[in-house]
Amino acid sequence: MIETLYSFYIGIGLSQQVTSILTSVTALFTIIFIGITLHKILNKLFFKQFNKFIKKQYPEISKVIVKVSLLQRFLMFIVPLILLFDLPLLFGDPASNPEILSVVSSLDKMLSLYVLFLLGVLITTLINAAEHIYNQYPVSKTWPIRSYVQFFKIFNFLIFGILLVANFLNKSPATFFTGLGAAMAVIMLVFKDSILSFVASIQLASSRMMKEGDWIEIPGKDISGTVIEMSLNTIKIQNFDKTISTIPPYYVTTNVVKNWQGMFDFGARRIKKHITIDSDTVLFLDEKRLGELQKIPLLAEHIKKNKADFLKSQMTNLGIFRHYAETLLEEDNRFSKEGVMFMVRIIQQHYVGGIPLEIYAYTKNTNWKMHEHIQAEFIEALVANMPKFGLKLLQHS
């Protein structure tokens, strides 16, 4: 081909230098045209049929292939590889054509660099495809690999960056890798956060401290919300006010972070609220008061059995009210009784003249809204029944 073109341009009266350039350019564009044509033919006849087969046999994998454009990445190799392998065929022995020797050498180097670059892109695409396939399995929720994927992408970028530079400068890659050891101090300084985050990501994954979808809270940082993304360099939390907070992974492993996921896994959510009783309304029980309280269904049997003891031990209306509140908790199916503590107790005094009565229990419903409604209804019921016991809430002046 090259000899035919060369003879044609010489035959129309062009100089030898112009003939060499035009011959090289014409041959190059001819091969590019052949490569593009073959690209389209293969895409239509082979890759489309292959894609249909994959879509039919493995629909989930087919979605991933389309999403990461995997087939297109393979097709990109066709033109440069044809050019690379056909250069000797087209141009013959460069030594016999000194005029085009530099052109052939330049084309060969550019094509080699381009193929090497495409190989790096293909490996990155395969890593992306592996991540997408992995994310289709339930295990990805408890063991995310996004941090590892990003690390391998960075590693791939560094390796192929060195190979491209070495190829361009006609140097051995071993020279650059040897020099890389001396530059490790600088690299560690530049990529300090990435290295710390990578190590932290391994700790998070291996210890299962948290995963995407967990509700976490960072005291003192005004961060409380759901983890929506965990990557090599960042953990994104969507707060309940719909703002987004971003923190590095190593912050989680070196600071106090509260993960509420254990509450959801356990299936119970704690109530720890108190009401303040007016101490002036706390009185010893007498026959008359006990008779009135015995009319309350939840207390009838208890008072009947222990009436004498109550009078003897000087039981107060607050004491019998605590028993009533605990019985109310025990009878209410909305509260969990297995593996948890529930009680109504007196805690440290906050206000002069007031006795804080704390309700400590767990609701079976962990949904935030339902949990709040249950505890509100329970406290409202207690407050509404306080007059029956002769008790009042403390009123602050």
Model description:
This protein is α+β, with helices and mostly antiparallel strands and about 400 residues long. It folds into three domains: about 1-195, no CATH class; about 210-260, SH3 type barrels; about 265-390, GMP Synthetase, Chain A, domain 3 (2-Layer Sandwich). It is built from 17 helices and eight strands. The protein has helices spanning about 1-10, 15-55, 60-70, 70-75, 80-90, 100-135, 140, 145-170, 175-180, 185-190, 190-205, 250-255, 260-265, 285-295, 295-315, 315-330, 370-385, and strands spanning about 215-220, 225-230, 235-240, 245, 260, 270-280, 345, 355-365. Strands 4-3-2-1-5 form a five-stranded antiparallel beta sheet. The longest helix has about 40 residues, at about 15-55. The chain is elongated, with a radius of gyration of 39 Å. The model has no long low-confidence stretch (mean pLDDT about 80).
Brief summary of the model shown:
This protein has 397 residues and is α+β, with helices and mostly antiparallel strands. It is built from 17 helices and eight strands.
Largest sheet: 5 strands, antiparallel
Fraction in helix: 55-70%
Task: Indicate the proportion of strand residues.
Answer: 5-15%
Total strands: 8
Mean pLDDT equals 80
What pattern of helices and strands is seen along the backbone?
HHHHHHHHHHHEEEEHEHEHHHEEH
- Structure classification: alpha+beta
Biggest sheet strand line-up: 4-3-2-1-5
In angstroms, what is the radius of gyration?
A: 39 Å
What separation lies between the terminal Cα atoms? 105 Å
Could you say how many structural domains there are in total? Answer: 3
So what's the overall shape?
A: elongated
Unreliable parts: none
Q: What is the number of helices?
A: 17
